[in-house]
Amino acid sequence: MPATIRDVAKVSGVHVSTVSRTFSAPHLVNPSTRARVLDCAEQLGYRPNRAARALITGRTHNIGLIVADIANPFFPPLIKAAETHARGRDYHLFIADTNEDANVEEELVLALAKQVDGVLLCSPRMSNTQIERLSRDVPLVVVNRPVPGLPAVVMDHAQGARLAIEHLVGLGHTHIALLGGPRGSWTNREIRRSATLTARTASVELTVLGPNPPNEEGGSGQAEAVIRTGATAVLAYNDLMAVGLIDGLDSAGVAVPTQISVVGIDDTALSRRTRPTLTTVATPTAAAGRAAVDMLLAHGDDRRTTALVTLQTELVIRNSSGPAPTNI
Amino acid sequence: MPATIRDVAKVSGVHVSTVSRTFSAPHLVNPSTRARVLDCAEQLGYRPNRAARALITGRTHNIGLIVADIANPFFPPLIKAAETHARGRDYHLFIADTNEDANVEEELVLALAKQVDGVLLCSPRMSNTQIERLSRDVPLVVVNRPVPGLPAVVMDHAQGARLAIEHLVGLGHTHIALLGGPRGSWTNREIRRSATLTARTASVELTVLGPNPPNEEGGSGQAEAVIRTGATAVLAYNDLMAVGLIDGLDSAGVAVPTQISVVGIDDTALSRRTRPTLTTVATPTAAAGRAAVDMLLAHGDDRRTTALVTLQTELVIRNSSGPAPTNI
DNA sequence: CTGAAAGCGCTAACAC
DNA sequence: GTGTTAGCGCTTTCAG
After folding, report:
1. Is the pLDDT of residue A12 over 70?
2. CA A43 to CA A31: how far, in whole Å?
3. Is the pTM of this model over 0.90?
4. CATH superfamily membership of A62-155+285-312
5. pLDDT at B305 > cutoff 60
6. Are A2 and B73 an interchain contact pair (Cβ–Cβ within 8 Å)?
7. Smallest CA–C1' separation from B47: which nucleotide?
8. Which of A21, A121, A147, B292 is the most exposed place for a label (fewest CB within 10 A)?
9. CA angle B280-B283-B286, nearest 5°?
10. How far is CA B63 from CA B88, B91, B190, in A?
11. DSSP letters of B259-310?
12. pLDDT at B239 exceeding the cut of 60
């Protein structure tokens, strides 16, 4: 029913290839013919069928975006930025949610492979080996985790953790707890490594708790454990856990930040809204989305030279962190 | 590079059409041949190219989902549910963000039209006329707004507003303010109509404020105006505005819910997290996403008979609403 | 039950 | 600068 290239050719009295060129290589066609063709196309409401075009060019102008959980507040800004950025470059975005399942992840990449020019893999749960294997089927850009040999976009969590610990040290805290995230998370290892190092340098004690699920329960469930450590400040793996922890501490009658300071990571929309508002390490999720799209589209150029983009973080001080309580 | 139907045909010693049938009409092929073909396909890592298939069948097995703002907390649960539900039925999802712009919306539908079997239009900003016109190019299902003649999924906001007002009346409030949303919003009109009616029935005063932008600023900016009305309770167009309003009231030294009760609409993830936690009308966003997918895929069946699905809402009572202050 | 042939909408050499 | 031809990967008549 919709107009095809053939209809336009017929109406404008030229051959289909001329119509084709009018759209895919306008400079190769006489301006006056071009104008006429464009005119007829407009009249007929003709729009090139990208799928048909892809069949022959091999470029779909589609990108796949695979995330662990669309509803996790960390992702929407990333998705939004990626979509907007991609569309600005005339690419459309497939979105898929793996529900944190590595098998679903693999299946999804395979299923999408033929319909996209590449896939953005956000916080994948698959093994490096699995990811490398998939990358032979379709160009991949990994977000939130470095995979050797593949282009990736990561946040500088080492820097973020350092900023957070230094902030707490500056407030006089001498015993800090690190509320760890899920086992096997690269981010978690980075945070732990950097926090440990920073604490040692500053000669303060650091107690590591975890692994924990990266959600509110993972925070609220550890409130008692945190209290038992005797720490006066906590750095949590992410905002969700930080918020959960504050809840848990509240239930246990511990005031934040008067008795215990809590710092999160990510600066999701949540952190401005909770009470107390959350001191947190802002990760540039929107920038990550755009960078990932850029890396994918740079395919063909010297992709190796920018194989790993590391985005800087920033400490946002709000009301959940304060001076260490004085022992009087 | 990836295996095609031809490669499989060659290796398994049958004609391409047999391979094709093995995947698209397995019952038409001899079990033993089928097994052999499947085996070779597996070996070669063959996967049918859906775009190529679509070219001939006319069915892409893709769905487009267009929302006003991916990062608005209302949408992610809907997107997630739609994606999961669609994938369960072997459909993939394109996502696109219009940034609340009607022109972008139209352009997006047109751009996606050839690559999808239909488009889910969430909270569209376009006119009914525009939408109807587009629906001639591609099957459309509208979410959050009824469009005459088109399948749509809406929330029963009339019911929701009634529940909210009755709740406040039950708490003894006799003067309630309605913090209206954006001009031209169907939802807004429904809420207003129902709130007005319910208030009149209960013989309580209702003061309508607005239109306002449907975000936190739209709430915080109206705090003074709300106070001036003298109302002791407010129903806001959505959670974001309710939360903003609570902030604004707080800044003005008005306590919630002691002096003024605030009720939101939507029950976004936010509402459990703010302090005080937000009493709100829960709208079943996930169910809406699934219902919209179902309606789209039911195309061909008797679509008219279920042209408008209305989803029930539910009042969630938390801590931002309380008894009307006594005038002593 | 399987093969042959045509063609979905489009682009890409290659002629003219 | 434009027409001709072949064919991307697949499904679908139609024969056999």
Report:
1. yes
2. 18
3. yes
4. Response regulator (3.40.50.2300)
5. no
6. no
7. D9
8. A21
9. 135
10. 13, 7, 29
11. T-EEEEEE--GGGGTBSSPPEEEE--HHHHHHHHHHHHHTBTB-GGGGSEEE
12. yes
Across all residues in chain A, what is the average pLDDT?
A: 94
In angstroms, rounded to a whole number, what is the distance separating the alpha carbons of residues B264 and B231? 16
Q: How far apart are CA A139 and CA A109, in angstroms?
A: 10
Instruction: Compute the CA torsion angle B3, B6, B9, B10 (nearest 10 deg).
Output: -90
Q: What is the pLDDT of residues A241-253, one digit of tens each?
A: 999 999 999 999 9
Q: Give, in words, the CATH class of B157-282.
A: alpha beta
Q: Domain boundaries in chain B? A: 5-57, 62-155+285-312, 157-282
The answer to whether A243 contacts chain B (CB < 8 Å) is yes
What percentage of chain B carries pLDDT values higher than 90? 91
CA-to-CA distance for B298 and A182, rounded, in angstroms? 41
Write out the two tokens for B285. 């966003």
Asked whether the predicted pLDDT for residue B303 surpasses 60, the reply is no
Confidence of residue A305 (pLDDT cuts 50, 70, 90): low
Distance B122 CA to C9 C1' (A): 30
Q: Which residue is nearest to nucleotide C11 (CA to C1')?
A: A56
Q: Do domains B62-155+285-312 and B157-282 have the same CATH topology?
A: yes
Nucleotide nearest to B6 (CA to C1'): D9
Contact A70, B80 (CB under 8 A): yes
Q: How is domain B5-57 classified at the architecture level of CATH? A: Orthogonal Bundle (1.10)
Residue A55: band (very low, low, confident or very high) from pLDDT cuts 50, 70, 90: very high
Set of chain B residues whose Cβ sits within 8 Å of the Cβ of A96: 83, 87, 92-93
The amino acid present at B205, given as its one-letter code, is: E
- Beta strands (DSSP E) in B144-215 are 152-155, 175-179, 205-209
**Which residues, in sequence order, are bridge partners of residue A314?**
A282
Q: What is the mean pLDDT of residues A3-11?
A: 92
Which residue on chain B is closest to A54 by alpha carbon? B51
Which pLDDT score, from 0 to 100, does residue A304 have?
A: 53
Amino acid identity at A148: P
Q: Minimal Cα–Cα distance from A198 to chain B, Å?
A: 31
Residue B283 makes CB contacts below 8 A (sequence gap 6+) with B155, B157, B160, B265, B266, B267, B311, B313
- A190-201 per-position pLDDT tens digit: 999 999 999 999
Tell me the DSSP string of A78-102: HHHHHHHHHHHTT-EEEEEE-TT-H
The owner of tokens 């009755």 is B166
Query: Residue B273 — pLDDT band, cuts 50, 70, 90?
Result: confident
**Contact across the interface for A76 and B77, Cβ inside 8 Å:** no
Contacts of A192 (CB under 8 A, 6+ apart): A161, A178, A180, A208
